[in-house]
Amino acid sequence: MKKKVSAQGLAHLAQMVKHMPGQDAKKVMAGLSQSSPLVASALQGAVFTFDRLMRLDSRSLQVLVRAVDRTTLAMALKGEREELRLKIFSAMTGRGADLLKDEIEDLGLQPAGKVGEAQKAVVAKAEELAARGEIVLPEEAR
């Protein structure tokens, strides 16, 4: 029998995992991946969110920015707070940052769903790079 996990239950679980030491969080996620892969997937998305990119070290952020398509990154940054945009721009060359700013501006008004999908794609790329050891995710996001 399949059980549904409520959004509220997932949010509570995500908060607990976020505050666990890294190794404990990994054990919980590994166990959950085996017993309930759908819940584990939803939890992973809830634990490392787009706004947590602010906590990436500069080298990791540079690697991530280079690995993500500029159009996807522009869409992901559409409507984001200035602080996060500036952090992303700081990980780029001046010309690259200018091109990204132009692309964000050219996008115009976008549906929240498209922005959310782009943000999920960036988070997925960050998780992929972390799994390969190319970047380091913030401790509370592991």
Overview of this protein structure:
- This protein has helices at 7-18, 22-35, 37-47, 58-67, 70-77, 82-90, 94-107, 112-131.
- It has 142 residues and is mainly alpha-helical.
- Helices cover 69% and strands 0% of the residues.
- The two termini are 30 Å apart.
- The protein contains eight helices and no strands.
- The longest helix has 20 residues, at 112-131.
Topology, element by element:
Blueprint: H1 7-18, H2 22-35, H3 37-47, H4 58-67, H5 70-77, H6 82-90, H7 94-107, H8 112-131
Report a brief summary of the structure:
The chain is built from 8 helices and no strands. The protein has helices spanning 7-18, 22-35, 37-47, 58-67, 70-77, 82-90, 94-107, 112-131. The mean pLDDT is 86.
Measured distance between first and last alpha carbons: 30 Å
Low-confidence stretches: none
Q: What's the total helix number? A: 8
What portion of residues is helical?
A: 55-70%
Principal-axes shape call: globular
**Element-level helix/strand string:** HHHHHHHH
> What does the largest sheet look like?
none
Average pLDDT across residues?
86
* Rounded radius of gyration (Å): 16 Å
Query: Strand content of the residues, in percent?
Result: under 5%
Going by helix content, strand content and strand pairing, the class is mainly alpha
Beta strand count: 0
